[in-house]
Write a structure and sequence with these properties.
There is one protein chain. This protein is α/β, with parallel strands linked by helices. 24% of the residues lie in helices and 28% in strands. It has helices spanning 58-61, 71-81, 112-126, 143-163, 180-202, 230-245, and strands at residues 50-56, 85-87, 91-92, 103-106, 130-134, 168-172, 207-210, 250-253, 260-263, 266-269, 277-280, 288-295, 299-308, 315-321, 327-331, 339-348, 351-359, 365-373. The strands form 4 sheets. Strands 1, 2, 3, 4, 5, 6 and 7 form a 7-stranded mixed sheet that branches. A hairpin with a 5-residue loop joins strand 14 (315-321) and strand 15 (327-331). Helix 3 (112-126) runs parallel beside helix 4 and helix 4 runs parallel beside helix 5.
Length: 377
């Protein structure tokens, strides 16, 4: 048994992502609206690292102490594919280790206009290949600023595209807010973004839209009215990943009975888990977490497990597909509250499949798994 005591905050998310995978009909929100899958913005084995500038406000920087918004899990997902990337920007923040590249342009409290005032300098200094833009939350304070936000976003996109015409810009909706007045302003602003992006595409600009935040719900997924917590931002990260790579990806939460059967292990609540809870104490020979799901097509799939390892050394689970021989999935040690994505490729069938996780070396807690076809480009 492990000899480490953990304090776990008690907050459970009721949000869930799909538990049935069909690569031919994967959720459109996980993909770019305009980027073909055969032309990923972040390719595998590029000759040089793809430079990505995360650009925005505190929901790019990270709204809670342990997290770094979507940047931490996006970096983990891209790293698990072996995609060479380089996050760029004048700001450095986020948890070391779990976020191996901490550079960005996320500025807490900034409006669209403030980003507009500095963006040319950042772009000419760092010259990113890809820009992930999420901005507008701080423009939602009153009707006047919220009403002006779509026009300002349009101008910002023009400035970015005119400064770096070859850069690919991905624009996300912003998270919904709890206050009724703010809620209606955010809804109205988010409604305009796809049309703004479509107009830029029609004029020849390399701009795409994704709805990264529609799966987040107040108050369960938020630190406060404005900021998604670390675990909730992980759910947004898989949508960013799908947009940048063209690879459909689906998350299965380990603690949700619709997805998994848990045997001789314990469900524990924590806000760094993407559904508000994870499965711990997978400590015994008969401990297991067994996921059941459907696939439309047989093939080799990438199984990414989001796990927490606070043992101070690499630990592992054994994972068996459809009762076959177990493979090993290994997890670096970050902490019990910081989660990393580790991957293994396994053959799966068309129709119903099972993935059974059991104890490996030392101890790791299991939050969720992310499934996709093995990326090829």
């Amino acid at each position: 048994m492990r000899a480490i005591v953990r304090a776990l905050p008690a907050l459970v998310s009721v949000a869930a992502l799909a538990f049935t995978l069909s690569p031919a009909t994967a959720p459109a929100a996980n993909q770019s609206a305009n980027l073909p899958a055969e032309l990923p913005a972040v390719p595998i084995n590029a000759a040089t690292p793809t430079k990505i500038m995360p650009l925005g406000d505190s929901n790019t920087a990270g709204g809670d102490a342990p997290g770094a918004a979507y940047r931490a899990d996006l970096w983990q997902l891209l790293r698990a594919d072996g995609r060479p990337i380089d996050f760029v920007g004048s700001v450095t923040s986020g948890p070391a280790g779990v976020l191996g590249d901490r550079d960005h342009e996320g500025h807490g409290g900034w409006t669209i206009g403030q980003i507009q005032g500095s963006v040319v300098g950042w772009l000419t200094t760092y010259r990113p290949d890809v820009i992930t833009l999420q901005i507008g939350t701080n423009d939602m304070y009153d009707d006047a600023s919220a009403g002006a936000a779509p026009g300002k976003l349009s101008t910002l996109l023009d400035t970015i595209s005119n400064t770096l015409p070859n850069a690919k810009v991905f624009v996300s909706s912003i998270p919904q807010l709890a206050d009724p007045n703010h809620y209606s302003r955010v809804a109205a602003y988010n409604y305009t973004i796809p049309g703004i992006v479509a107009a830029k595409v029609a004029s020849g600009k390399q701009v795409s839209f994704l709805d990264a935040n529609s799966g987040l719900f107040q108050p369960y997924d938020f630190v406060d009215m404005w900021h998604p917590n670390y675990g909730a931002a992980s759910k947004a990260a898989i949508r960013w990943y799908g947009a940048l790579t063209g690879v459909p990806i689906t998350r299965l939460e380990a603690e949700q009975t619709a997805n998994a059967t848990v045997t001789n292990a314990k469900r524990t609540q924590i806000t760094s888990a993407s559904g508000g809870a994870k499965i711990g104490y997978i400590d015994y020979p008969d401990s297991s977490v067994t996921f059941t799901f459907e696939l439309g097509t047989a093939g080799t799939y990438r199984v990414r497990a989001r796990g927490a390892n606070g043992m101070g050394t690499v630990c592992s689970h054994k994972v068996s597909a459809n009762g076959g021989p177990p493979a090993t999935i290994s997890y670096p040690s970050y902490s019990w509250d910081l989660l990393g994505e580790s991957a293994v490729d396994l053959p799966l069938n068309a129709g119903v499949n099972t993935l059974k996780f059991t104890k490996g070396d030392c101890y790791t807690e299991l939050d969720a798994i992310d499934l996709s076809p093995v990326p090829t480009s």
